[in-house]
User: What shape does this take?
Amino acid sequence: MTKMTLGSYPHMLGFEQLERLLERTAKSGNEGYPPFNIEQTSDWSYRITLAVAGFAESDLSITVEDRQLVIRGRQQDDSDDRVFLHRGIAARQFQRSFVLADGVEVGEAIMENGLLHVDLTRSKPETVVQTISIKKG
Assistant: This one.
C-alpha cells in the first residue's frame, strides 16, 4: 500500500512544509501529562487550559517556536530538606506542543486555581482576488 501525502494531490501546491510540520508533531512524543482542554471561545478565538497543580508561574515557560506553541514546566526539587513518608505528588517536568496555523496569535496566559489558561486568536482571512495578465509570447 502506498502512503498518501499532500504532494500526491496535484491541486495542492506548496503544502510540503505543512506536511513536514504534521509529521514532526506526530513524532513529538506528547505524553498524557499534564492533561489539557482546548475550547473554542468564539468564532475567532481559542483557549488551551492545562492542569498544572503544584507549579508556580516561575516554574512554567510559554514560547512560540517555528509555528508551535510550546509550554514547559519544571519544578524545583526541594526534597533535600524534607522527609516524605509517602510521595504521591511527583515533581515532574513536562513539555506540551501545539501546532499553530498561519494567522493564529498567542494572547495572554493566566494562572488560576492550578489551571494555566493560554488564549489564542485567529485573524480573519482577507478575500484576495488577483487578476493575472496574459502576455503574448
Remarks:
- The longest helix spans residues 16-26.
